[in-house]
Amino acid sequence: MFMPIKLLVSLAASLLLFACCSSSKTQIHFETDKIDSFKVELFNPITGMKLFSETLSGPKKTLYIDSAINDPVEVRILWHREHIPHSIVKPMQKHEAFYGPTEDYFVLHKMIFINSGQSKEYILKLPNKTTAEIEQAVKDKTDYSNIELATSSEDANLFEEYMGIYATYEDKLADSLASLNRQLYASNDAGNFEESKQIQSTIAGKGWKDAIRNQNKQAISKKITAHNESPISAFILLWEIYAYKSPFDEYATSFQTLENDAVKNKYYVTIEQNFVKK
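and the corresponding structure tokens:
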């Protein structure tokens, strides 16, 4: 997934500079009692550029960021996978084409927004599980990846609310597919193969996915209207148009409602320059 050159130029200011060991710098704390060490990688989620990589260990696991930030960051938490084979985990990894092969690492993902002007401290609470338990949960296809964010940043918390809408969307997709598969298995067990064909056709089609996606879009639009002065809403519009491939026309009304700080940022400018018809 790559952006046009014009988009990349518009977001060039998103690059982050990192250093360590100063309480005056923006900090990302990783809270976990059950994972001794792991590798952390930070990415710009729009450009896909890797910004930072460091292995953390010991009782206090903290990244210290040298420069002021006002951007979303994709956080990847990795460790050497030991408990289940790569052939099982690999198909479950999201965004592999975007970030490259996961090789021998198990990966947790979390996208957060950092606004150093609002807060210099961001706490990520990892699942209260060992690496073995997390990997086994993936094998069993149960939830494992919930990472909680704690911060006083208003922008970061609003961003988290938007991410919650996307998480609900993903959950509904998974639940609907599981329900259709249960119906399929029941039809096969009952020998009702004509019904099985119809269910298979439904699963292969886009209708059920589109219906859930439309619900997701409505929730996003409603949130943008409620927070039309926030730069976070401008970013979410860009994310919808770029990452989710939504036509700009579907969000033209939402874009027009933005005002104040929501129009005074590079996300708004990027949309205006690249997607608004002149």
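(Above: one complete record from the training split.) The CA atoms of residues 3 and 242 lie 8 Å apart.
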